[in-house]
């Protein structure tokens, strides 16, 4: 029935009242085919220019970002391969240099010891021959049976034995094997530690910035909350008066730096330079903070196994100070432990 040109906008279907049950579309929005055509054309165009184009634009931007990320990842990976290679090559070079130095030192000790032994062997061999000559002279004298000849030769015997008798005063130094044994790898590591950079820095806290409720150790490496009756401190624009915090003494304006802070059993604390909150899955004993000022990088690590925790990227506008807050102690005894700067002494 092509002459019946109706369309149900509710069901989105062509309607024929000769074929369909009229009651089916009784409460529906039914219009003629021409009007329906125009209405749906307009609707589809709006969809095309609306969410379809928006979706297309979003996918295009996403693909652009992904392609840029792909290129940046490849570039970063290439750069990191070089960085890792250089780091290990430096360690290999330091190990080779230390091995060479240790072998040269071993050769020098060996040569010195062998020379000393050989010289003593030569000297004692000469002395042995003289002692044997003296023994031969005495045996000859003792073998003389004629009393007059025996006694007549006694006067010259001492002169003949002069220089033939030597005491054995052998003194020598043991070859220094212990110098090259023991915990050899640890010994090598300690010697390498002097050439590795960066290593945990010996930071100190700046008392002039400390909140009046904080207690600092004499060497300014430990800070705790608990000064219940704080003494009046000299007012200073550097001093924290709201946050229970203290800054490090050294300000960083460039270069690469690393420091470690022992947090142990604490339940609340803040360290670093910026303010992101870390969601740490495993328990932390020490936190490592790595600052590459020139690259705008601040990286947090679990200092026990150097596993990565968080990376902060920023164009640093000026000098930076390390930041420490032990948090407030609680009446139930929680969070009373101090923060302690971990200084590695070799």
What would you call the shape?
elongated
For the residues shown, what is the average pLDDT? Answer: 84
Order of helices and strands: EEEHHHHEEEEEEEEEE
| Strand composition percent | 15-25%
DSSP helix fraction:
25-40%
Number of helices: 4
- Strand arrangement across the biggest beta sheet: 4-5-13-7-9-10-11
Which regions are unreliable across 5 or more consecutive residues at pLDDT < 50?
A: none
DSSP E strands, number: 13
Radius of gyration: 45 Å
| Terminus-to-terminus distance | 99 Å
Largest sheet: 7 strands, antiparallel
Give an overview of the whole structure.
The chain is α+β, with helices and mostly antiparallel strands and 346 residues long. It is built from four helices and 13 strands. It has a seven-stranded antiparallel sheet with strand order 4-5-13-7-9-10-11, with no helix packed on it. Helix 1 (33-143) packs antiparallel against helix 3 (154-161). The longest helix has 111 residues, at 33-143. The chain is elongated and about 170 Å long. The N and C termini lie far apart (99 Å).
Annotate the secondary structure layout.
Blueprint: E1 6-8, E2 13-15, E3 30-32, H1 33-143, H2 147-152, H3 154-161, H4 184-193, E4 214-216, E5 222-225, E6 246-252, E7 256-262, E8 270-272, E9 286-292, E10 297-302, E11 307-313, E12 320-325, E13 339-342
């Amino acid at each position: 029935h092509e002459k019946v040109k109706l369309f149900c906008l509710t069901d989105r279907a062509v309607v024929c009242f000769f074929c369909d049950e009229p009651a089916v579309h009784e409460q529906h929005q039914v219009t003629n085919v021409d009007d329906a055509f125009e209405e749906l054309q307009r609707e589809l165009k709006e969809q095309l220019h609306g969410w379809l184009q928006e979706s297309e634009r979003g996918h295009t931007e996403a693909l652009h970002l992904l392609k840029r990320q792909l290129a940046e990842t490849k570039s970063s990976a290439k750069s990191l391969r070089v960085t890792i290679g250089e780091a290990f090559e430096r360690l290999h070079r330091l190990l080779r240099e230390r091995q060479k130095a240790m072998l040269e030192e071993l050769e020098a000790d060996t040569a010195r010891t062998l020379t000393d032994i050989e010289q003593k062997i030569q000297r004692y061999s000469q002395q042995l021959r003289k002692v044997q000559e003296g023994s031969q002279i005495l045996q000859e004298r003792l073998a003389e049976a004629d009393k007059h000849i025996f006694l007549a030769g006694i006067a010259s015997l001492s002169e003949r034995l002069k220089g033939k008798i030597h005491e054995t005063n052998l003194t020598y130094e043991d070859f220094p094997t212990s110098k090259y044994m023991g915990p050899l790898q640890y010994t090598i590591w300690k010697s390498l530690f002097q050439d590795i950079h960066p290593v945990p820095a010996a930071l100190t806290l700046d008392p002039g910035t400390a909140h009046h409720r904080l207690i600092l150790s004499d060497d300014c490496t430990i800070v705790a909350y608990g000064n219940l009756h704080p003494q009046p401190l000299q007012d200073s624009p550097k001093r924290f008066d709201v946050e229970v915090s203290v800054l490090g003494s050294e300000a960083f304006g460039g270069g690469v730096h690393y420091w470690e802070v022992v947090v142990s059993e604490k339940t609340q604390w803040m360290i670093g330079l910026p303010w992101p909150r870390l969601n740490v899955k495993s328990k932390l004993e020490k936190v490592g903070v790595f600052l590459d000022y020139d690259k705008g990088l601040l990286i947090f690590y679990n200092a026990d196994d150097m596993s990565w925790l968080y990376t902060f990227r920023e164009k640093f506008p000026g000098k930076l100070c390390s930041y420490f807050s032990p948090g407030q102690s609680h009446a139930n005894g929680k969070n009373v432990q101090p923060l302690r700067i971990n200084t590695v002494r070799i």
